Amino acid sequence: QVQLVESGGGLVQAGGSLRLSCAASGRTFSIYAMGWFRQAPGKEREFVARKTWTIGAGTYYADSVKGRFTISRDNAKNTMYLQMNSLKPEDTAVYYCAADTKAGTSNYARPSEYDSWGQGTQVTVSS
């Protein structure tokens, strides 16, 4: 099993930046890719970004965050990051990281494709 812990959320004004971290522990060798999702009140959990855990390409973003958010990894620290710039009020949500231990995922944007989830970190963007 993989355990995930997010950090870095907070309150920021529109146009500001935040960097989220997701520290992985446990069977990290089994991770194929990591993803970030978010869930606003009353809405379904939605895909934000995904990146393979070790070597290779395979970086994907939701259209709503492309050009503003950057996903990156530090394998030495077993940590995945989400740098969020030019934040907007509509980015307000609880952000979750998730681990995918299967190669060849058919739909990387679907939450059910991920095996382990963190507890979430709140991001609030004020206008």
Q: Layout of SSEs?
A:
Layout: E1 2-7, E2 10-13, E3 18-26, E4 33-39, E5 46-52, E6 59-61, E7 69-74, E8 79-84, E9 93-100, E10 116-117, E11 121-126
Parallel strand pairs: 2-11
Antiparallel strand pairs: 1-3, 3-8, 4-5, 4-9, 5-6, 7-8, 9-10, 9-11
Q: What is the gist of this entry?
A:
The chain is mostly beta strands. The chain has strands spanning 2-7, 10-13, 18-26, 33-39, 46-52, 59-61, 69-74, 79-84, 93-100, 116-117, 121-126.
Structural features, described:
The protein is mainly beta and 127 residues long. It has strands at 2-7, 10-13, 18-26, 33-39, 46-52, 59-61, 69-74, 79-84, 93-100, 116-117, 121-126. The chain is built from no helices and 11 strands. It is globular. The strands form 2 sheets. Strands 2, 4, 5, 6, 9, 10 and 11 form a 7-stranded mixed beta sheet that branches.
Low-confidence stretches: none
Into which percentage range does the β-strand content fall? over 45%
**Helical percentage:** under 10%
The run of helices and strands is EEEEEEEEEEE
Number of strands: 11
Q: What distance separates the N and C termini?
A: 40 Å
- Radius of gyration over C-alpha positions, nearest whole angstrom: 14 Å
Question: Which structural category do the helix and sheet elements fall into?
Answer: mainly beta
Mean pLDDT: 95
Tell me, briefly, the overall form.
globular
Helix tally equals 0
* Main sheet attributes: strand count, strand direction, barrel closure: 7 strands, mixed
